[in-house]
Amino acid sequence: MLEVFQKTISKSISFEGIGLHSGKNSKVTIIPGKTDQGIIFKRIDLNSNNLVAANYKNVSSAKLCTTLENKHGVKISTVEHLLAALYIARIDNVIIEIDNEEVPIMDGSAKFFLDLLVQSEINQSNKKIKYIKILNKVELFDGSRKISIGPNENFEVDFQLNYQNTLIDQQRNVINFDKDDLNEVIESRTFCLYEDIEKIKKLGLAKGGSLNNAVVVDGNKVLNDEGLRNKKEFVNHKILDLAGDFILSGYRILGKIKCYQGGHELSNMFLRKLLKQTDNYSIIELESTIISKKINSEQAIKLAVNA
Asked: Could you give the 3-state DSSP secondary structure of residue 238?
């Protein structure tokens, strides 16, 4: 639903796992946050200058993942799936303590994070959430890639891929984050083409990648034994990534996004353009809860009870 008041978790939650690109094990603890604080990462392996705000201005790299960096050069990477989970769980303020440079990839989706988050009761403050309400269409073209946003009463994403691969092809989906069932988006994993793996590794990335945390496509076959989790898993994961990247705006957004062949880099470029053009949006607060959203029944019950 479109929430009115800011929320955080009631108690700390911890987990650990391997970083997709660094291959390093990281321990993470999500701690309740203060009102108006937003989402802040804290590198507890460092003694000073170790806070990194989840903000689009702090994106220093968007190559195969989103990396945040503060003015002291402290980085935290692969933040997008955890951020998307926080968005879907309607959690606005937390501190994320981590003892390494990369958020664990877990199974490559947001499912682990959502399952973990809904185990905690949600604390609601008396301070309202600020929304960006889109007033006029804004577009960005980057070669063959393009992205736009227009007025809408919810946060809706229309995403289309364009891969030279017969299995992925031009997969497209439209998801309204405030009305639709989000389970297939939540469970959709990061993916790559088999022929690109060596190229990625030569860049010093994907050191922790495996069939346990990514879908690998070879020609018209999925190499993972379990196959795909849903028919549109490829584009659904891109929609998940986009949600995680857009929460870096510092607001929840009311608008309809259309994206063609986008990714982390295009999303960040677009946010920078959008937020400079202040005539095209207004910042608002809601008077009352409006629209119900579907995740799985267990999550919906827990979130409703604790709202």
From this structure: helix
